[in-house]
């Protein structure tokens, strides 16, 4: 169905372009090879039409360009480009709608836990959506964060704070977390059912200030990162890199 729409959309644009080109040819002929432009009325009409067609051609080009960009977004199954990761409401809404699973790969996950796993009973619901998700039947949450051995001092302090929150969540039987220590963090990955958000991790830049791409989970681009997450997770499980007194 998408291929049909793409074909018809492309054919329509090409047809309109052909008509505009034909009109330009006719107007050019009338303007330079007939006596019509020699009259005041004819000159005004031809010039006005010529200008209008040029504007229409430019607008068509813009439409075609936008069509190509949108089509490329659809092929990659991109839902949205996020300039940063500060919008708590955006992420919170996705988490609140989740029915099956949440998987997170990050540096310390402190911001994520502070935003969505507030155990204060008086906290607003949007700050407790992760806790609500963990109470759903057959729901699973996995969080994979960097071992302190690969972090700088600033992130080590955040990791200490995050560790306490992660251990609290271990009271939920459907919650797991692990540490990776083979490399410095390079990407942030968040999987929420069929939603997939991925972004880079830059040294000395707060994660909230970095961009991200929101994809459909079945996007080919998302599959590469999901494989990356699964490989990291399995490696950690094999090494039994779960929190211990050393963390």
Task: Describe it.
With about 250 residues, the chain is of the alpha/beta class. The chain has two domains: about 80 residues; about 160 residues, Endonuclease Chain A (Endonuclease, Chain A), CATH 3.30.870. Helices cover about 50% and strands about 15% of the residues. It has seven helices and seven strands, in the order ααβαβααβαββββα. It has a seven-stranded mixed β-sheet with strand order 1-7-6-5-2-3-4, sandwiched between helices. α1 packs antiparallel against α2. It starts with a helix and ends in a 9-residue tail after the last helix.
Task: Briefly say what this structure is.
With 247 residues, the protein is of the alpha/beta class. Helix content is 52%, strand content 16%.
Q: Could you tell me the mean pLDDT?
A: 80
How many strands, which pairing sense, and closed or not: the largest β-sheet? 7 strands, mixed
Gross morphology: elongated
Continuous helix count: 7
Poorly predicted ranges: 1-8, 241-247
Strand order of the largest sheet: 1-7-6-5-2-3-4
Please describe the topology of this protein:
Layout lengths: L1 H32 L6 H37 L1 E5 L5 H10 L3 E5 L4 H7 L12 H6 L5 E7 L6 H17 L5 E6 L6 E6 L2 E6 L11 E5 L3 H19 L9
Parallel strand pairs: 2-3, 3-4
Antiparallel strand pairs: 1-7, 2-5, 5-6, 6-7
Keywords:
7 helices; 7 strands; 2 domains; Endonuclease, Chain A; 247 residues; elongated; alpha/beta; disordered C terminus; single chain; 7-stranded mixed sheet
């Amino acid at each position: 169905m998408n291929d049909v729409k793409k074909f018809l959309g492309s054919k329509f644009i090409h047809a309109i372009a052909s008509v505009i080109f034909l009109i330009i040819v006719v107007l050019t002929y009338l303007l330079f090879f007939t006596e019509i432009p020699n009259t005041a009325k004819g000159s005004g009409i031809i010039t006005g039409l010529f200008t209008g067609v040029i504007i229409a051609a430019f607008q068509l080009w813009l439409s075609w360009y936008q069509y190509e960009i949108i089509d490329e977004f659809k092929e990659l199954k991109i839902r949205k480009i996020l300039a940063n990761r500060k919008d708590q409401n955006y992420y919170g809404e996705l988490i609140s709608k989740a029915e099956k699973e949440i998987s997170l790969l990050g540096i310390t996950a402190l911001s994520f836990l502070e935003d969505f796993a507030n155990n204060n009973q008086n906290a607003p619901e949007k700050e407790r959506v992760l806790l609500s998700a963990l109470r759903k039947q057959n729901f699973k949450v996995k969080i994979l964060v960097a071992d302190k051995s690969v972090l700088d001092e600033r992130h080590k302090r955040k990791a200490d704070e995050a560790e306490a929150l992660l251990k609290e969540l271990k009271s939920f039987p459907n919650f797991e977390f692990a540490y990776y220590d083979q490399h410095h963090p390079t990407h942030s990955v968040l999987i929420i059912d069929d939603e997939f958000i991925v972004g880079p991790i830059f040294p000395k830049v707060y994660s909230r200030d970095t961009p991200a791409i929101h994809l459909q989970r079945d996007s080919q681009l998302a599959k590469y990162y999901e494989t990356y997450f699964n490989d990291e997770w399995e490696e950690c499980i094999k090494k039994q890199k779960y929190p211990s007194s050393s963390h």
